[in-house]
Amino acid sequence: MNHRFKDRLLAQLFAFSLFLNFLSLKIRLILSKTLDFLNMDSLFFATADDDSLFGTTAAASRSILQSLEDLDDERLYLVDHRWWNETRESLFREVNGVCYPTTTSSGLADDEFEFESEIVLEMRTGEGDDGGVDWKVEGEEGVSGREYALVSEWMFYRALKWHYDMKYAGNFVAIEDNKADFFSLQVRLSISAATNSLVVRISQKGNEIGAFNKSCQIFCLKSGLLNIWDFSGQITKFFLQGRMLSDKSEQVNEEIFLELQVYGLSFDVTPKANGIAVEDFDGFSSGSSLKVNGHTDNVNSLVGLGHPSLTSSLSEAYNLGLTGLYNLGNTCFMNSAIQCLVHTPQLVNYFLGDFRRDLNFENPLGMNGKLALAFGDLLRQLWTPGATSVAPRAFKSRLSGFAPQFSGYNQHDSQEFLAFLLDGLHEDLNRVKIKPYNEIKDTDGVSDKEVADEHWRNHLARNDSIIVGMCQGQYRSTLICPLCKKHSVTFDPFIYLSLPLPSTTMRTMTLTVLSTDGTTLPIPVTVTVPKYGKFKDLIQALSTACSLREDETLLVAEIYNNRVLRILDKPADCIDLVRDDDRLVAYRLLKDEDVLPLVVFTHRRFEDPYGQGSPALREFGIPLVARIPDCSDGSQIQQKFLQLLHPLLMPDEFSSDVFDDPVNTANEDVEMVEAVDDNAFNGDPNIEVNDKSFVDDDFQFYFVQQEHFSEGSKMLMDEPLLIPESRRVNVLVSWPEEMLKRYDTSILSHLPETCGLALLTKKPPESVSLYKCLEAFLKEEPLGPEDMWYCPKCLKHRQASKKLDLWRLPEILIIHLKRFSYNQFLKDKLETFVDFPIVDFDLSDYTVHKEGQSSFRYELYAVSNHYGGLGGGHYTAFVQCGQQWYEFNDSQVFPISEDQIKTSAAYVLFYRRI
């Protein structure tokens, strides 16, 4: 969304935002004393419908509370304490854990495992004299040596990513001894008043058989204790909730249900039943669905097909991030962009961390945090160990609420999707709750650095999120008035660069060139021009090809049905407006005659197309064009026409001395025409003649209107012309049989297609450097007529020239290659091969502001590709994981080599600062 539009919208909502923020602060104050002790579900149920509390903003407040309620969906993970502690020393030193000595009540013989229908664990605690809880301090190991850690979801994923990075960095430390196993457990929690402990029940009935068997191996001890360290702070909440439930007689049997995720706690222990080894059942089907702490997701994303076996090593299981996305129906555009984003290092670390603390529930431009929650959940699913392909239905549903155009299953543009997604994530994660109003100050006489810094501070005062800090840069925009040379400099943020593709792909075009002085025959001229260039490029190439004199100019017209359909007189128009089967004619005219009226001669003759003896007048040949004086009469028009026809005279009809003098020949033809009977056609050019005995043997001329080509009046020799306001005179010339014999009209009838010759040769696709694309983006060029700039000095709208410069570079640079071209007549895709750097993209020569920037060099880490054309195409992604490149083709993921990255399908490039 355009930032200036946001500013205007928020300026109107500023007062309402203040009021809403005051109410939300009041709500949080009321809830602050109870949120740590009560379950959010019951609390919100009690308060969300209290309109007397929230007044006229009850609906808005309920929306905020509903978004807050989503924060209670954090999963809990049980991991190996040693594995966690390695990470904690690096990332979580400020996080303290509380140890709960835990025993199991399942009966186990000394020499064998006996499976019970339920595992019961008691997490003990005692209360001190002050009524507080006296827990065991960290550092004391369990008797059995089994130490586990209970962590929140964001802690788990940060730890997982840390170990993954250590693996790729070559530092395996001690984690290779761990067994990477991942599964879910349904547990029930209650409070035992007799033992003052938290009772954990894991039943065989409520879990898959494979998960229950694994839990037996983890929790069922032959002797001794195990220690469970709580780093999530949730055990305190469970104790308080359990006591509240046990104090209510009517809810004495009520328990707390929890979906516990278990990772890395497999043991090389084979359970036995009656002395016979029991096979380890995985038990998770690809289509089953579990409720995970409030989430309902496909188990594929966690422990589906292909998850590591019970005895697999960690190195085999660490395929983090190599998870595909199912195509939900023309959603390849979405999958491609998502895969690029979920492998952006800063974004991965952020969403694997505690991103929920930044959720903005009060921003009217966002989704009350729901889009960010859905994206974070999807990213974590894609970074879950052993995950297979994920169906992003929940995320797509959330996105459709923010951008309704993505609600269906039509194909869309991945760059357009990316722009909306980044904007939506920014609004959901904007740390600025109340945006200040910043008035634009006069910058005359102020240095660019001061102006740029002020614009950037004002921008950050209203926009502060991971998206801004990661992706947004700043460029300088300079407008120059073409008349008074007034300069206007502004500094605007950007989240991506849309670079044009310079027209290196050439197009071969054939035009027919005619003289307007009767000296040369029409000749076809073939030129090569940029395929996506302008008409001025065509005129320049054509002028060179036909050796145009300095005093001459070219008038290019499109011919359709032997008439001038339109004059191509706008140099800034795109060449791709001309189709391959169009026919173009270029007329050579004198520059100093540009102010004179233009006369266009269109030819007609009698034809009998059906052979039924009923000839009719029909147009033929190439129209002829010339300039005439303002005071011309009919005889001068006739003389000009005969002069233009002179090169077409048949050589066997006249002597060489007459043929060499076009003026004399024209005079003789005029004398012949003056003897014409003016009443031959009775002034009706549309007459159908069956008996041609009364038809004259000389030309007949009629004035016609451009918009009504068939209507006109016969030209009189001695009457002056009435020049229309358009300064264009259209004359219809009827050819008799005698004149058709005297002139070679076949030359006029041959008009080649513009690009017919291009089919004979097929050139290999040309390439362009990414630096050339950047130069084309930054070059100075005039604004279009529809984008006129109001000059504050001239006090008028001017077609100013615009110049862009890179001023401040982001950490993540997203480059969009403008492969799709659109205009009022057609749209097309550019297949230009862009040669982009992979390891060293240096922008130091393209950035005008050097101070305070750590680096100007970038390396590529992801590419969104588009294959095919506009009618039907497909998106994929290339992503670098560690040192290896992979292709993500919807649900399929496979490695590729670095030399396969550069293709003509590259559409959006993702660079990170070196």
From TrEMBL:
Keywords, sorted A to Z: Hydrolase, Protease, Thiol protease, Ubl conjugation pathway
Catalytic activity entry: Thiol-dependent hydrolysis of ester, thioester, amide, peptide and isopeptide bonds formed by the C-terminal Gly of ubiquitin (a 76-residue protein attached to proteins as an intracellular targeting signal)
GO biological process terms held by the UniProt record: protein deubiquitination; proteolysis
Gene3D superfamilies associated with the record: Cysteine proteinases
EC number: 3.4.19.12
Any one Gene Ontology molecular-function term assigned to this protein's record: cysteine-type deubiquitinase activity
InterPro entries in alphabetical order: Papain-like_cys_pep_sf (IPR038765), Peptidase_C19_UCH (IPR001394), Ub_carboxyl-term_hydrolase (IPR050185), Ubiquitin_UBP8/5 (IPR057372), USP (IPR028889), USP_CS (IPR018200)
CDD domains: Peptidase_C19R
Organism domain of life: Eukaryota
Stretches assigned to the USP domain: 323-914
Function in brief: Recognizes and hydrolyzes the peptide bond at the C-terminal Gly of ubiquitin. Involved in the processing of poly-ubiquitin precursors as well as that of ubiquitinated proteins.
Record family assignment: Belongs to the peptidase C19 family.
Stated name of the protein: Ubiquitin carboxyl-terminal hydrolase
